[in-house]
Design brief:
With 258 residues, the chain is of the alpha/beta class. The protein has one domain: Metal-dependent hydrolases (TIM Barrel, Alpha-Beta Barrel), CATH 3.20.20. The protein is 41% helix and 17% strand. It binds zinc ion (ZN) (2 copies). The site of one zinc ion (ZN) has 5 residues, from loops.
């Protein structure tokens, strides 16, 4: 079985101290690729460093919406320059988070637009984080796709069926994290049942959001296998098939890794 963790934070506290072990645990469960996601400019070098050392790890370059206020001068140029590296295959994570509102909303939108611009200039797909900001996310992504030909994924999807459809119609992928395994995630489980197989990815978003049966533990990339098994069961599909499809989807979207 061949799985990919399409979104993890290997340099975050909780994983960074035992990175080698965490990668081995995942490989033992069939995880053959990891997209190590950046959230702040000061960590870009370390994120790319892991991808330089490990042949099955790739990197993204971006700034999380929580960090928008802390990066007042971030424009497309800095993103494009940092992304000009053979192991960088994506722009993000970026987007809007009006649930936590950790940064000013206008600043979040401005930084998101800079990432859209960088995605257009580099041809790399966008890794989009969106929470309680569906209208603005849909508006920005619609323009990004129609006017700039940008591609990407709605990561750790927890939105409405309407937002999922909007994203899918725009050609975006939808990525499921451990949240889908939670008891109170019925709405998301319904969406997971009908997501088109060719636009679906799986991820951990580790060290956060450990799936069932690991609730309460530090999440790590190995657990993407539990999320994949849960989703396969939900969809009435063999796990092998879901693993193959989501892995093929990963390389189709992040084609610089292929
Ligand atoms: Zn996120
Ligand atoms: Zn993340």
């Amino acid at each position: 079985m061949r799985l990919i963790d399409s979104h993890c934070h290997l340099n975050y506290e909780g994983l960074v101290e035992r990175q080698a072990e965490v990668l081995e645990n995942a490989r033992d469960r069939g995880v053959q690729g990891f997209l190590n996601i950046s959230t702040r400019q000061r960590e870009w070098d370390a994120i790319v460093g892991v991808a330089e050392r490990e042949s099955d790890v790739w990197a993204s370059i971006g700034v999380h919406p929580h960090e928008a206020d802390a990066h007042p001068d971030l424009g497309a140029a800095a993103l494009v320059e940092a992304a000009d590296h053979p192991r960088v295959i994506a722009i993000g994570e970026c987007g809007l988070d009006y649930y936590y509102d950790k940064s000013d909303r206008a600043a979040q939108r401005e930084r998101f637009e800079a990432h859209v611009e960088a995605a257009q200039q580099t041809g790399l797909p966008l890794v989009v984080h969106t929470r309680d900001s569906e209208e603005d996310t849909a508006e920005i992504l619609t323009r990004a796709v129609r006017e700039k030909g940008v591609r990407g994924v709605l990561h750790c999807f927890t939105g409405s069926a309407e937002l999922a459809r909007t994203g899918l119609d725009l050609g975006f992928y939808v990525s499921l994290s451990g949240i889908v395994t939670f008891k109170n995630a019925q709405d998301l489980q319904e969406i997971a049942k009908w997501l088109p197989a060719d636009q679906m990815l799986v991820e951990t978003d580790s060290p956060f959001l450990a799936p069932v049966p690991h609730r309460g533990q530090k999440c790590e990339p190995a657990f993407v296998a539990d999320t994949a098994a849960f989703v396969a069961e939900l969809r009435g599909e063999p796990l092998e098939e879901l693993a193959e499809t989501t892995t093929a989807n990963f390389f189709k979207l992040f084609n610089k890794a292929a």
